[in-house]
Design goal:
The complex is a heterodimer of chains A (277) and B (303). With 277 residues, chain A is mostly beta strands. Chain A contains three helices and 16 strands. In chain A, 14% of the residues lie in helices and 44% in strands. Chain A has one domain (41-275): Immunoglobulin-like (Sandwich), CATH 2.60.40.2470. Chain B has 303 residues and is of the alpha/beta class. Chain B has a single domain (23-240), classed as Metallo-beta-lactamase, Chain A, CATH 3.60.15. Chain B has helices at residues 2-20, 70-83, 98-101, 120-139, 210-221, 244-262, 267-273, 285-300, and strands at 25-28, 31-34, 52-56, 61-64, 88-92, 113-117, 153-155, 158-162, 167-172, 182-186, 191-199, 227-232.
Chain lengths: 277, 303
């Protein structure tokens, strides 16, 4: 037993420097983000309600695949009402706010995000009873020459507003089915290089997204520039005999990448997908 | 102790010399290249990893890519002075990536025109702030907006410039390695300066369009050149053979990613599965491959 304890202690001593170096700074969360979005609220850190999955090393910081897996079923009595995602050290940390209903089937979510630097990415689930649970993960964005915008801006501009739905092959009545929604939009972070004044350009991004199935909400989201260009979401819905899956989004122009005080509305887009019985 | 002190000074002095005495090779008459090492830009090399150089005419000199940091730009300037007393009249930036443009400041003076692809200024403007932040974080370089020097002249399709008895044809390529690739052709020696449209040994990096790059390669493959200068890797004298490895890699990505998309597989699966048969053929595969798959996947989803 003693030897066992010694071994554990030794192991702890050996790994403690690693633990220290892995514990990156959470000051922007504690001092700013939490105060702004969850003032006075208690948030429990836990992976029992939702768990965030993202690569530790993100080779393409403009396009980091992020998954949120829910650990509970969406039922009328107990369900995840909202998931909010932040990247602590992004110039604008708020990534998006995603609302679910019991009809969502499952509050799983996948998306692609921009991660500017070595940072925590966190997701906070709000239950229907108001309780808050947080899952977090460190993402190390590397690759300094791939700036956080799409590789081919003109190609993205040309097909702006197009949408595609992709469904997993086994859509069964009464069981949560996965849908993937692809939106073509450059989601421009804003270009503000002073000396190249010709190209001062406002932020231009998708800000509201609503997915319905037969007019009932499946996913309602408020999103921001941390969503990669050509936003891509996976989520669940409950297909009944057949019906129409519909996505609508609007975009917005803002004066600076880091403030949402001065913004003007853009356009609305919509797309429908018929699910046959 | 005294000896150690001396040794330190000798080393420090040697370091300075090494920095200013840039080695350049004359790959064709009047065409000089400094060959970069295949390294990830970091705090030790300060981003000086690309092939850079210059072409000497009867009246003046065109710099082709200025280096990965201001010091490398100054070292290139000194190397030019050692070889010719003709003044620099043009700085041609082959694209926006930091290892090709951060030496620009060394050449910023009266009489020097900066030339780039029609989309170069926009790319600089879109990436500038991010690049400056990354330079401090990853390259240990203190840069400001003044270091990101946009082109004075933009190339829309083609532009011919005269260095005195030597005409260079600059061509703005469609989106390929990046969305602002510019190639330089020297008629006199039948040399094509491809820069990052061609990688040898160093894994090709996609920051534009996989399909676009394959199309540009298809076109260039049919042409004949005596000498081709890549952005990373050794000079090519057996064109188009020098293109084969890169073409194979990019073709593997195209085929395998398309298969994944047809099968309804996701980006994160493609990142782990696509293209690993190519791993042993390239340096810096681990550093750039996943990023290439990501960029290409996002592109091919919309074809």
């Amino acid at each position: 037993m003693n030897i066992y304890l010694q071994k554990i202690t030794l192991l702890l001593l050996l790994i403690s420097p690693l633990l220290v170096s892995a514990a990156i700074d959470e000051s922007s969360w504690k001092n700013a983000i939490k105060k702004q979005y969850y003032a006075g609220k208690t948030i429990q850190e836990s992976n029992d309600i939702i768990e965030i999955k993202a690569p530790y090393r993100a080779e393409a910081p403009a396009l980091v695949p992020l998954k949120i897996i829910s650990k509970i079923a969406q039922t009328k009595n107990r369900y995840i009402k909202k998931i909010v995602v932040f990247v602590d050290k992004n110039p604008f940390p708020f990534v998006g706010e995603f609302e679910f209903t019991p009809e969502s089937g499952k509050a799983d979510l996948a998306m692609r995000i921009r991660v500017n630097t070595y940072s925590y990415v966190r997701a906070i689930a709000e239950m229907n009873d108001g309780k808050l649970y947080m899952s977090k993960k460190i993402v190390k964005a590397s690759g300094g020459c791939s700036a956080p915008l799409g590789a081919d801006l003109d190609a993205a501009m040309k097909r702006l507003g197009q949408m595609k739905f992709k469904l997993g092959n086994a859509v069964k009545e009464g069981k949560p089915a996965m849908a993937q929604l692809l939106i073509s939009h450059p989601n421009i972070t804003g270009m503000q290089m002073d000396q190249v004044t010709r190209f001062i350009k406002k932020s231009h991004f998708v800000d509201q997204l609503k997915v319905t199935f037969d007019d009932k909400p499946v996913l309602t989201a408020k999103i921001d520039i941390a969503i990669s260009s050509d936003p891509n979401f996976r989520f669940y819905f409950m297909p009944k005999k057949g019906g129409v899956l519909k996505a609508e989004f609007t975009d917005v122009f803002c004066e600076t990448p880091t403030s949402r005080d001065v913004c003007t509305k853009g356009k609305s887009y919509s797309s429908s997908y018929m699910i046959k019985p | 102790m005294k000896n150690q002190c001396c040794l330190f000074f000798v080393l420090a002095f040697h370091g300075l010399i090494a920095q200013s005495e840039m080695t350049v090779s004359e790959v064709a008459p009047g065409i000089y290249v400094h060959f970069g090492q295949h390294q990830l830009p970091d705090k030790v090399n300060h981003g000086a990893v690309a092939n850079i150089g210059f072409i000497v005419g009867d009246t003046c000199v065109a710099v082709i890519d200025s280096g990965g940091n201001p010091d490398q730009g100054y070292a290139l300037k000194a190397a030019i002075k050692r070889i010719t007393d003709k003044p620099v009249c043009y700085v041609i930036n082959t694209h926006v990536h930091p290892d090709h443009i951060y030496g620009n400041i060394a050449f910023k003076e009266k009489g020097v025109k900066f030339i780039g692809h029609k989309k170069l200024a926009r790319a600089m403007s879109a990436r500038g702030n991010y690049y400056i932040a990354k330079a401090a974080e990853q390259l240990d370089l203190k840069l400001t907006a003044a270091h990101i020097i946009p082109p004075d002249r933009l190339v829309k399709n083609h532009l011919a410039i005269d260095l005195g008895g030597r005409r260079l044809i600059l061509t703005a390529q469609p989106t390929a390695h990046s969305d602002n690739d510019l190639t330089v052709f020297d008629k006199k020696t039948d040399t094509l300066w491809l820069s990052d449209l061609l990688f040898l040994d160093h894994l090709p990096v996609i920051d534009g369009s996989l399909k676009g790059w394959l199309e540009v390669m298809q076109k260039l493959q049919k042409q004949k050149f005596t000498t081709v200068i890549p952005g990373h890797g050794a000079v090519v004298t057996d064109w188009p053979n020098g293109l084969t490895a890169q073409k194979t890699y990019l073709q593997v990505l195209l085929t395998e990613i398309r298969e994944m998309i047809v099968k309804g597989r996701f980006l994160e699966e493609a990142i782990e599965q696509v293209g690993y048969s190519e791993k042993d053929k390239w340096q810096l595969f681990d550093q750039f491959h996943k990023r290439n798959v990501t960029t290409a996947f996002a592109e091919l989803e919309w074809e």
